Automatic annotation (TrEMBL):
Enzyme Commission (EC) number: 2.7.13.3
Keyword Transmembrane helix: no
Region (Disordered): 84-103
Record key words, sorted: Phosphoprotein
Domain Response regulatory: from-to ranges: 479-595
Biased composition (Low complexity): 84-101
Protein name: histidine kinase
Organism: Xanthobacter tagetidis
Length: 597
């Protein structure tokens, strides 16, 4: 820039006296001293490395508290360059043509600049524009006299008029506009008065920036809803743990022949159904416990195909296409199958008259990820799973809501609104992302991107956390400290363990647990502790317990994912984990296994 090579331009930058003419230096320093909060575009004279002076524009950003501002220097974009870019008026004299030719070199700067620039009159009529401006606003060369307001959407016409009026009055705050017509691109316009009723325009394409901002805002919205859903799920898990637990205590005292036995079983079964809904909420909020293993997607989808065909019925054709040499991924097998099933069910419901469901897989190298639209993923290779239907499609006005929990367009009783929310949470927690595109009347495509696994395959999969324990003997002995801030859960768990032969001490917080440990007068064999508690959480309590007894065994109980708090512990810390809600048998089995370990 300005004749300087990369090696000639010092990393520390250059003083403005070395770049701008003396008259402009005073103007710029005055502008910085005012610490303006708006951007401004100023015509300037630039000093080249060889001391030549050329016209230009400088886009000066808002000043910060230190009086510093960002400058964008546009060589050759000043008044002379703009004048050189204009064609001579019809019937002009030879002298005028000669004057225009003198600005030819400077005009080339303007016409070939990569930044969109134009010259307008006070009313917004475009007198001259470079190729970048024409491309940005899809301006045809056959209509050189178009007005600026005609190039933007109707909603932005008033903003353009205010920009031009402000420029004439010396106010140079930019405005954001959207190009008129289909597929309009976004731009930020800067305007600066050139005198004589002329205005210099500089336009920066902000389409990608606006897309990223919208994607980030949607991500923040879903994250906020996820936090809310996760908090609700945590509270419900405590309630369900107590309901299921007390049902188990009642079932211990009632024989199957008792009249009340089926009633108790009905309560427990419905509590377990509610627990399934809570697991979906936790999946959406990315707080469920996953058991990832290395898998080949083609094998898993092949195993799921028969189930999908049964779900689709006879009126919907299933087509499966796999890319060659698919990279392995590391996911929770059961959860990934749920992703495919949920997407398939969603597609089936969108094709009441029949159609085609296509499931496709392929590798996506790192340099192709952005082209798919996944801008928020870490750099790397991914494996793509596409689920496409030929159904009714999704209306554009609800596309931003489809992954929100409890949002559904189905009739009452036909859906919970958690299907796509669960898919979103599982994919996000796995380190991937899911994208949706749809055309009403033609169908919808969901694209799931999962990170490529670079390591070797797992020796064996971890068994599901919810599986009922196989241990036949659920009795035991030893001193167990139970730490739980929910009274109902603490009471049930204490009775369950005491009824199986354990000596149980209880505490309602981490601080109380340390006091009980120091005052009980005997060594503890095991601590069963909640994770989220007031005053002192589970990980902090574990550190304090280890400081007092390094050999002490610990079982954490929580409605959140094990990974959510394990990262707050020292590497290699040994503990067992039991997810809420749990039954009496699961609690007693987890305690027995921890003591035997």
């Amino acid at each position: 820039m300005l004749g300087y090579g990369l090696t000639a331009w010092e990393p520390a930058g250059k003083a403005i006296e070395e770049v701008f003419a003396p008259a402009d230096v005073a103007t710029l320093r005055g502008r910085l001293a005012r610490k303006d909060t708006v951007a401004e575009v100023l015509p300037v004279t630039l000093v080249m490395q060889d001391a030549r002076r050329v016209p230009g524009l400088v886009a000066l950003g808002p000043s910060d508290a230190a009086g510093e501002a960002t400058m964008v220097i546009l060589p050759g974009a000043g008044r002379a360059a703009l004048a050189g870019a204009r064609a001579p008026e019809p019937g002009g004299s030879r002298g005028e043509a000669s004057g225009a030719s003198k600005g030819e070199e400077e005009g080339r700067f303007f016409l070939n600049a990569p930044l969109a620039m134009a010259l307008t009159d006070a009313a917004g009529g475009i007198r001259a524009a470079n190729a970048a401006f024409d491309l940005l606003f899809a301006r045809s060369g056959a209509a050189p006299q178009a007005r600026l307001a005609d190039l933007v959407g109707a909603a932005d016409a008033a903003a353009v008029a205010a920009l031009l009026d402000g420029a004439q009055a010396g106010r140079t705050a930019p405005c954001d506009v959207v190009r008129g017509g289909e597929g309009g691109r976004s731009a930020r316009l800067y305007a600066a008065p050139l005198g004589g009723g002329e205005i210099a325009l500089c336009a920066i394409d902000t389409t990608e920036q606006k897309a990223l901002e919208a994607q980030f805002a949607q991500s923040q919205k879903l994250q906020a809803v996820g936090h809310l859903a996760g908090g609700m799920a945590h509270d419900f898990n405590n309630l369900l743990t107590a309901i299921i637990g007390y049902c188990d205590l009642l079932l211990v005292r009632h024989r199957p022949s008792d009249p009340s036995f089926p009633d108790i079983m009905q309560i427990k079964q419905n509590a377990n159904r509610a627990a399934g809904l809570v697991r979906q909420l936790l999946a959406y909020s990315r707080r469920q416990t996953l058991r990832p293993q290395v898998i080949e997607l083609s094998d898993v989808i092949a195993d799921t195909s028969e189930l999908l065909r049964r779900l689709m019925g006879e009126r919907i054709a299933l087509e499966v296409e796999h890319g060659r040499g698919l990279w392995p991924v590391k996911v929770d097998l059961n959860q990934f199958e749920q992703v495919i099933v949920n997407l398939a069910v969603n597609a089936r419901d969108a094709m009441p008259e029949g159609g085609t469901l296509r499931v496709r897989t392929r590798n996506v190298p790192a340099d192709e990820v952005a082209a798919i639209g996944a801008r928020d993923l870490p750099a790397g290779d991914y494996v793509l799973v596409e689920v496409e239907d030929t159904g009714t499609g999704i209306p554009p006005h609800i596309m931003d809501q489809i992954f929100e929990p409890f949002f559904t367009t189905k009739e009452v009783g036909k859906g919970t609104g958690l299907g796509l929310a669960t898919v979103y949470g599982i994919v996000q927690q796995t380190g991937g992302t899911i994208l949706a595109s749809s055309v009403e009347g033609q169908g919808t495509t969901f694209r799931v991107l999962l990170p490529r696994h670079e390591g070797g395959s797992d020796a064996e999969a971890t068994p599901a956390a919810e599986a009922e324990p196989r241990a036949a003997d659920l009795t035991g002995q030893g001193t167990v400290l139970l730490v739980e801030d929910e009274d109902a859960v603490r009471a049930f768990a204490s009775r369950a363990l005491a009824g199986r032969g354990y000596d149980v001490l209880t505490a309602a917080s981490g601080v109380e647990a340390l006091e009980v440990m120091e005052g009980c007068g005997k060594r503890l064999d095991l601590v069963v502790s909640d994770v989220v508690m007031p005053e002192m959480d589970g990980p902090t309590l574990l550190k304090e317990l280890r400081a007092r007894d390094p050999r002490l065994k610990v079982v954490f109980i929580s409605g959140y994912a094990e990974e959510a708090f394990a990262r707050n512990l020292p590497p290699g810390e040994d503990f067992a984990f039991l997810p809420k809600p749990f039954s009496l048998k699961q609690l007693v089995a987890a305690v027995g296994e921890a003591l035997k370990a």
